[in-house]
Design a protein that fits this description.
By secondary structure, this protein is of the alpha/beta class. The chain contains eight helices and twelve strands. The protein has two domains: 119 residues, Rossmann fold, CATH 3.40.50; 95 residues, Arc Repressor Mutant, subunit A, CATH 1.10.10. The longest helix is centred in the middle third of the chain and has 20 residues.
Length: 222
């Protein structure tokens, strides 16, 4: 069953949502501040987030842009249309106003999880003989698995999304930061080197070329 992260500093609401979602069969995590939510995201990324806005420290509005690849339903007492529009345009997939009916919230959760699962079913990237399963974080070529670290997977995914195009080093660091916050410009070179070796061990080709002073290129010509 899906893993849901509840981010709400109101212990009553957080506890109530935790109890109801657990009864529905979901695995539930709780965070009571934006900072705690960030720590949860780095340790165990959930399948969906229920996000309050008025949080201590890092607010929900400030946290939202730091969430990538995970559907976020905002659950807030703010009812202004401009607030809703701004958050939906800023990355939230849905918005429900407090107080809310639990049946409605459960339905909205199911809708977003169905969409996520449907997207995951077709989440396979292909370049030449390399296949990347973005839902299971599995890479393979010619039927053989390529065992990648989390950082190597994030780099290869980005390059496969932009084949035969130079991707700048700073762009790579920025785009993979949500998955691999510890990657730096110096360590990026090491990760690329290791990724090349792993690709060559399975395919006989490195596939990744360095473009001096700019970045890296996934190409069949390497």
């Amino acid at each position: 069953m899906a893993n849901i992260l509840i981010v709400d500093d109101d212990s009553h609401i957080n506890g109530m949502l935790t109890e109801v979602l657990a009864q529905e069969g979901y695995t539930v995590q709780s965070a009571y501040s934006g900072t705690e939510a960030l720590m949860r995201l780095q340790s165990t990324p959930p399948d969906l987030i229920l996000l309050d806005l008025m949080l201590p420290g890092l607010s929900g509005e400030a946290l939202l842009p730091q969430i990538s690849g995970i559907p976020v339903i905002v659950v807030s007492a703010k009812a202004d249309v401009a607030d809703k529009v701004g958050l939906l345009l800023g990355g939230a997939v849905d918005y429900i106003t407090k107080p809310f009916e639990m049946e409605e919230l459960l339905a909205r959760i199911q809708v977003q999880l169905r969409k996520r699962n449907a997207a995951s079913d077709s989440a396979v990237l292909r370049f030449q003989e390399i296949l990347l399963h973005t839902d299971t974080h599995r890479a393979e070529a010619g039927g053989s698995e390529i065992r990648l670290t989390r950082t190597e997977f994030a780099i290869l995914k980005l390059l496969m999304q932009n084949p035969e195009q130079v991707v700048a080093k700073l762009t790579i660091l920025e785009r993979i930061s949500a998955d691999t916050p510890d990657c730096t410009e110096d360590s990026l070179k090491i990760h690329i080197h290791n990724l090349r070796k792993k690709l060559k061990a399975v395919t006989g080709r490195e596939y990744i070329s360095a473009v001096w002073g700019i970045g890296f290129l996934l190409t069949a010509k390497s």
